C-alpha cells in the first residue's frame, strides 16, 4: 500500500509566520490532519504525519521519518507571508525525476481547480526552490503555500472552516490523483428525505431542511427511464448515525423519509 507523509510545517517553539494571535503552525496542523483523514477515509493508502500536535520538530526529523519508512510521497504544508495573496506549490529546484514534476502538475491543477473558482483564490503558479524538505527527501516531494497569513482577504479564508475543509480535501484529492490511489469501496447509509420528479419540489424540501439546521443536497437519479430528484440529508458509514439523522428528519414531519444503503 502506498505511503504518504504529510508534514504540517513549524510547530511548538516555531510558530512560523504570525499575524497578531494567528500563527502559521496552527493552520498547517489543522489542514494536515484533515488531509490525512480525507485520504484514509477515501483511499487505500497509509499516511504518516511528521507531527499531530503542537510540538517542535526539526527539519531533519521530518525528512528522516519519510526516508526511514521508504515513503512514496512527501507533502509539506505551509502558509505564506509577505503581503501577497493566493496559493502556490513548490518542488526542488535541483534534479528531480519526471514523476515529481508530473505530480506537481496534477496536485496544483486539482487544488486550484477547486479553490480558484469557488473562493476566487489567485493562482501564484508552480515554482521550484531549494527548501530543505524538498532537497533531503529521497522520494518525490511537494511544498504547498496555502494563502498569506498577513493579507486580510486570505486570512478571512484561513479562518473559514468551510474553506479549510474544501482546501484540505482538494489537497487530498490532488495527492490521490497524482499517486493513482485506489478508492475504498465503502457502502454508505444515505438518509433520503423525499424523492421528487419536480426539481422545484425537491428544492423546496432541501430549503426546508436547511432552515431547520439539517444540511441536504439534491441528487439526480434515473429510475426506469424517469428522472427523479432525491433530497439527501446526510450519508453515513455507520447505520446508527444514519438512524439518528432519520429520526431528526421525521421529527420535522417528513414521514416518508428512509435510509438507502448503496
Topology:
Elements: E1 3-8, E2 18-19, E3 22-23, H1 24-42, E4 46-49, H2 59-68, E5 73-80, E6 87-92, H3 98-119, E7 123-129, H4 132-135, E8 141-148, H5 152-158, H6 161-179, E9 189-196, H7 199-211, E10 217-223, E11 226-236, H8 239-251, E12 258-261
Parallel strand pairs: 1-4, 1-5, 5-8, 6-7
Antiparallel strand pairs: 2-3, 6-8, 9-11, 9-12, 10-11
Helix pairs in contact: 1-6, 3-6
**In percent, how much strand structure appears in the residues?**
25-35%
**CATH class (first level) name of the largest domain:** Alpha Beta
Q: Kindly report how far apart the N and C termini lie.
A: 26 Å
Mean of residue pLDDT values = 95
- Which secondary-structure class do the elements indicate? alpha/beta
Basic shape: elongated
Indicate the radius of gyration in whole angstroms: 21 Å
CATH topology of the largest domain: Aminopeptidase
State the order of secondary-structure elements, H for helix, E for strand. Answer: EEEHEHEEHEHEHHEHEEHE
Strand order of the largest sheet: 4-1-5-8-6-7
Percent helix, as a range, is 40-55%
Task: Characterize the main sheet.
Answer: 6 strands, mixed
Number of spatially distinct domains? 2
Number of helices: 8
The strand count comes to 12
Low-pLDDT sequence parts: none
Q: Architecture of the largest domain, according to CATH? A: 3-Layer(aba) Sandwich
* Relevant CATH superfamily of the largest domain: Zn-dependent exopeptidases
